[in-house]
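Hi there, hope your week has been kind to you so far. For a while now I've been wondering how a particular protein folds. I'm sending you its amino acid sequence along with the backbone structure tokens. Could you read through the record and tell me how the tokens relate to the sequence? Take your time with it, there's no hurry, and the full record follows here.
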Amino acid sequence: MNRKLSKVERLKGRLGFESLFDRGLVLKKFPLKLVHAPVSGADTHLFGVSVPKRNISSAVARNRIKRQIREAYRLNKPPVAGHTEAILFIYQSREVLPYVQIEKAMMALLNRFTQHASPTDEGL
């Protein structure tokens, strides 16, 4: 399995995020919330991370949390099975939590995501 997180796997652009919030389904496992929606025309899952400024005011802490979430996703990313989805992880805690807790929540969410995702969904 390829463990890289390439540039083509990044969720980018205002339209991508808007359509994700309009049509996306939500899964939660503290401290993360996963919003996902099917997307057409992509070869792999599109991935994004958000750490709200209102929850974590320090830019240094927000960037560290984003790096930890990206690393947990990179190591545990789901296989692409005939369909692609846009996936956005939103950090919900008001304090900085250890990487082990973030990775545990990530693994639980990705397991639930692979069970819920179906190849018959319509594209964005």
Q: What stands out?
A: The helical segments are 14-23, 59-76, 99-116. The chain is about 35% helix and 20% strand.
